[in-house]
Each structure stands twice: as C-alpha cells, then as structure tokens.
Task: inverse folding
DNA sequence: GACTGATTTGTGAACGCTAACAAGAGGCTC
DNA sequence: GAGCCTCTTGTTAGCGTTCACAAATCAGTC
C-alpha cells in the first residue's frame, strides 16, 4: 500500500484502518474489531493495535462508517424561538445528553412556525440521515405537520403528549398553573386574572386550563383573561389595560417576560406590587429574582427536559418499548411579588 | 440490478443514483451530473432524469458523497453560554446563513470554558470532519487554545481580531462604550462609573477600555469601576455597594442583565433613575425596554454577527484571500434611564 | 494423534457516490 | 468525405468502513 506522504511534518492524508493494520501487522478487519470493542480479540493483538492507533493518531472516518452502517450518529434538533430562555436551555440539555452518548447534534432553527417550514427542516435532517429528531416547537400545529411525512426515524417532541409515532416529553404545565393559583388563593385572593400566552402554543393552553380549573375547583370565577404574545411588550400593553380596569387583586402571568412588562405598566400607573396587586410569573429565568419587585414564579427545569428527550430517544434506538410520554414536575418559587390582598 | 422492495407501500430501501438511472434510461453518472448541476447535459436528458428523480423521490446520500469528496457540508458551531441572548442569537445567525448556503450545522456547547473542554469539542468536530468551525467562546483564552491543535479546516471566531490561522468577526465594543459614555458626558455627567463584565472576556475588556479612553479624552477621571460576572445577581450586589457610596451620577453597565440588578438595588435604596443616577446598558435584549425605568442601551446585532461569520467562512472555502477581521458597528438606543444630572 | 468445538484472524464484497478518462455523436471546414 | 473540433454520455475505479463468511489456531477429549 502507499505511504502517508508527509509535508512539513503534517500528514497529507489521514491514516485509515489499512495504515494501522500494516503498522500493527494484522488485517484491517482486526483493527476494525479493536476500534469497535468486539469481544473476540486476543489481548496481545489488541495492545499492538492500540499502540499503532496511538502512534498514527488514527480516528475513524464517520462518512465511511455511516455509508455502510446506515447510521450517522447524529441527532437532529428542530427548534423555534431558540434564542429564548426555555427553548435554548432545552436544546442545551439535549446537546449535553447527546454528546455524552456519543452522538453529534445537528440544529435547524425555524424562521417562522409553519407546516412548510417544519417539513423543510425535517427534510434537511433526512438528507443528513440523522438517527433521530428532537422537536422543540411547542405549537399545536407541530404534531400534525410531523404526521404528514414518513420520517423513518424516532421523533421526540417537547410539549405534547406522545403517541405511537412521536414520543412526548413535557413539563406538567397544568400542575404549574395550579401551584401558582393555589398559592394566590391561599393568600386570600379572590379575583385572580390570567395573562395568557398565545393560544396556539401547547403550554399556553395548558397553563390557561390549569388556571381555569383551579379557580373552578375553589368556586371562583375565571373571567379575567387576556392573551399576549409572550413578549415583555405585550405584557406591558396588557398591564396598562389591567391598570385601567382594576378588576383583579392578583395576576397569574404566562411567562416571566410578560410579567416584566406587566410590572412596568403597573408601576407606571402607580399600582404597587404586591400591596395592590400580586403577580406570579412562569419559567424562572435567572433575571426574575431581580425584577422590581422580585418575581414569584413557577420554575421549570428546561435542561432536564432536554436530557429526558435524549433518554427517550436512546430507549427508542434500543427498540425497547418505553413510555410514550415523560412528564417533568415544576415547582413554585416564592419571592416578594405576591402577598395577601389589602 | 435489484428492485426496490416495497412493503406496505413504503420503499424498503431508499432509491440511489442507479435506480434513477435505470428509470430514466441513462447511466448513473449522467444522473450524478444532473444532481450536481453540471453544465454539459442536454435539456432532453436533464428533463428525463429530473422526472425520474421526482417519481422515485430520490435524495442523494450524504455519507457516500462525503466519503468521496472529503467534505461533509457541515459547519461546527462551538459555543459557550449558548442560553444567553447574545451567543444564542449569534448561533442563530450562523445557522440561518449556513442552511441557506446548503450546509448542516453541528453544535457543541461547552459546559465550562477551559483549554481541555475546547480541545475536546474541536476533536468532536474533527471526528465529524466538519468543513469549518465557528467559535462563539468570547474568552481571552480561546485563541490560545485553538492554536494548540492542527485543525486543518477554516476557523472563524467571534470576538477577537483575526490572525493568519483564525478569522475574527466582532462588534466594535470600544466604539459602543464610547457612544454610551459620550452620551452621558453630553448630558453633563462628570462622575461616570463602570460596572464591568468579567475581565477574562474579550468584550468586557474592550468595553472597559472604551469607557476609560473616552473619559480620558474628555479629561475626566476613570476611577470608579467594579467587576461583575454578567449576571443580574452580581449587578444587584454591585448596585448596593454603589448606592452606599454615591460617588457617581451615571453608570455605564457592561450588559443588560447586570443593569437590571443595578436598577433593582438603586430602587431599593431609594435612589431614583434617572433623576439621581443615570444608567446605560449594553446589548439591548428585548426586555431592556421594559425595565423600570426603560433602559438606554448600546445595541449590537448578534444575528448579523453570526451571518458575517458564515460569510467569512464561505470566503475561506473559496480560497479567496478575504479580510482577517470583520467589524460590526453598534448603535446607541436612547430610553428613559438617562438624563442630565440634577 | 486424530476429532471436536470454541476462539481468533483474514478475505472479499458491498455501501452510494464522484473523478478521471474514454468513447460516441454531431457540426464545421477544406 | 476525411479531419478536427466540441458537446454529450458511458465505463471503471476508488473513497474507508463494516458485514458475512472462510480459514486458521488453540484447547480439551477419547
């Protein structure tokens, strides 16, 4: 076989199995066995081969391996709003678990959430022949879009409940809403409003449902709800409207950003938090403890969510029949934005 | 050749060049030429082949292609703190530009910023044989770590100036600091403090330098500087100390999160912003306009930064001798957290 | 020492694609 | 119509792995 040409001390071609085999005095197949930890290799040969691998700095070629095994060792992460705290940390959780398990992580971010954009991204991943896809697109339309394409690899989605085709990993949002509303009820609030997230988001619907159900079970009216778009700006606008009407003494807000906007609007209107109105947020991003006042929130562990996705993915790879849905529990973090009504 | 077995309407094996060739009545090489847009294919054959491709739903196999071309069509993005506004959006900018250019994006997030973690991630990418690496690790140590490994593919780093080995794309942080400080000086402030980011971050050093230089050129003292860790919590602690000493009438804060903490501390201490103290932040994350009070900031366009990285990468692929450093300009956004001193 | 079974190693053929070259078809000039 | 281009198409040989199978080696048993 040809030698590895050397120019200026740098190998001109990366070493391959054959090169290692020659140096160790064995066949390429034996080297392959060592690299793949096959059991039936004698200790002597294994050591010879490992020495040769170290000497040449051999690393196996992913493309060649993929070509024959039909596996790419790659997980596709399909996400939207990836610059936001929740999705970003979920992605990081997936990345961490995936890399620890020896997988590469390929990312595709949706510019806008639509059927076509989702299908396009999935096709992108199929072109790359990923071994599985994690979907962080917490919209109601997502599952339907995914069902359209015969994907052929395991899919795990964050947010919805799983079904036969798609695994689901989610935080128990209804429970989170319940924690928040029960806390307010416990403080003596009776008129508890909700600043909801956009109702085409799975989580926004679940939080609103939880808010409604908890009030109902306490015999309280659930009539004050306004829908925002998750942004601080929309929270601000809604806060101004709420300040004008003054119908609630407590607000359960769908996320921390909107809560920030609400606090700002109430502050401008001279309404004190928590003396006049209590506010609870959702997510617990790192800044929430430094709002004015520090925000009582429902905390969810996004990284854990991501790790669970990967865990479910690995179960699917094993062919084992795992659970269709994994649920992570949120918790309530008390700060000074909530107090009994005056 | 063998037929594509069909079970339950689903192809058991994906179609390959050969299958398309047979259906179109040409050789596999001709199909390859069509797929790769080679010029010398007659219109008639091209149409026949395209019809066959459409009929079979053919997509070319990335692994096989990579094996022979020695290119993976993949860009590695190596990042730290990817859940934060700036890095996350930079990554999204890279992703967008990369996918538009037909590349896959592989992500590796550093758990902690250290030489070993960086080398490990780079090796991860080399195993995947990425065509290029974008590094979003804005620490001083990054460049040195990268220099240790013979990487063999183009590298573009966000933050530092470029050199022969590594391309650099950055926002002009000194200029940003200058904009902020000049604005405060223009309002009549004389005692202007700085809440700095951690000084092992490239940007933190540049912003502090800009603050110092601008004050010096105006003949003002640059003696009040305290270093934080970018978090709202550290901003809060620093804000408390500042509130106790009352030496400055204006503060240039290294990022928006710390500014949030500072605002909180000042508010608790009964110091009014901007009447008693003016505050300027840095980054302009979407929430900054809804702090109490809305924050005057230096805005940087992180997505643009990411796009430029990819642009520089593509230039490097072409073998063209492009610029070693690309610089993006920040801008000042005026809100109500700054006013002339009382 | 031949016979068995297990363990260890080697051989050849894919995997699906592109690169390099060869060959055929068609048009032009003389 | 021979000669020479140019344009289009086909043939063959890898790229670096793994898989399926065959061959060789090694104990242990009668």
Result:
């Amino acid at each position: 076989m040809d030698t590895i040409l050397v120019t200026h001390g740098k190998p001109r071609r990366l070493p391959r199995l054959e090169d290692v085999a020659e140096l160790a005095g064995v066949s390429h197949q034996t080297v392959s066995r060592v690299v793949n930890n096959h059991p039936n290799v004698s200790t002597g040969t294994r050591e010879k081969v490992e020495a040769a691998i170290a000497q040449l700095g051999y690393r196996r070629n992913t493309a060649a391996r993929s070509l024959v095994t039909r596996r790419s060792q790659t997980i596709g992460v399909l996400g939207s709003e990836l610059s936001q705290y929740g999705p970003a940390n979920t992605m990081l959780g997936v990345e961490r678990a995936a890399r620890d398990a020896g997988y590469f992580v390929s990312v595709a971010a949706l510019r806008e959430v639509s059927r076509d954009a989702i299908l396009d991204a999935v096709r992108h991943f199929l072109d790359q022949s990923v071994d599985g896809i994690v979907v962080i697109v917490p919209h109601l339309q997502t599952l339907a879009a995914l069902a359209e394409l015969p994907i052929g690899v395991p899919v795990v989605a964050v947010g919805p409940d799983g079904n036969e085709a798609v695994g689901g990993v989610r935080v128990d949002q209804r429970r989170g809403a319940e924690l928040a509303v029960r806390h307010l009820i416990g403080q003596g609030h009776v008129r508890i409003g909700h600043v909801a997230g956009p109702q085409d988001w799975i989580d926004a619907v679940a939080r609103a449902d939880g808010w409604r159900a908890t009030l109902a079970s306490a015999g309280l009216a659930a009539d004050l709800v306004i829908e925002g778009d998750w942004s601080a700006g929309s929270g601000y606008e809604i806060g101004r409207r709420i300040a004008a009407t003054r119908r609630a003494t407590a607000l359960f807000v769908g996320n921390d950003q909107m809560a920030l906007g609400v606090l700002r609007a109430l502050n401008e209107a001279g309404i004190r938090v928590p003396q006049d109105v209590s506010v609870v947020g959702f997510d617990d991003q790192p800044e929430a403890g430094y709002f004015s006042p520090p925000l009582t929130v429902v905390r969810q562990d996004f990284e854990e969510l991501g790790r669970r996705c990967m865990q479910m993915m690995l179960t699917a790879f094993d062919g084992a029949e795992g659970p269709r849905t994994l649920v992570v529990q949120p918790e309530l973090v008390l700060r000074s934005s909530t107090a009994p009504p005056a």
